[in-house]
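[agent] plan:
  1. take the single chain provided in the ticket
  2. run structure prediction with default settings
  3. attach structure tokens to the ticket
  4. add a short note for the reviewer (M.T.)
[agent] executing step 1
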Amino acid sequence: MAETQQTLFEKCCACLDDGGVKYSVDRIEDSDIINFTASGDDLQMNCTIRFIGGVVSLYSLIPARFSGEKLVDGIMAVNEINRKLVFGSLDFDRKEGIVIYRVTNCFNDCTVETGGIFMELIRILLRSVDDYNDKLFMLSKGILNFSEFMEEINK
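[agent] step 2 finished; step 3 output follows
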């Protein structure tokens, strides 16, 4: 039997409860939203899981802000990282100069036996943010130039 938005949401909450994750829940229009904070290798990450129908999206803001002459570097860096990612993608908000990692899955016409799939999606989210946050931050602050950034992501 295909999952509904409500059953997906409930399975995810149960999985988070089982893992001891503290979270808050919001409902905005037709979306159920879970917000939580997780520890990465070197930073706390604010994460969001959004359920709309059978579609589940996970988001986390990367703590780098690009502005001025660094804006183009940020756009190019996001493009280069996206070429390397197997799952999910970085979104660049040009107006704000921010980078968000996003994973979206569609569970329409699927049955989710356990909430474990959500923990796997969260692990992917955290690993991807951990892999690139420092490099993007250093690029945004001018600690690395774009060539050095490319060397770092290609190691």
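[agent] step 4 note for reviewer: Residues 116-140 form the longest helix (25 residues).
[agent] ticket updated
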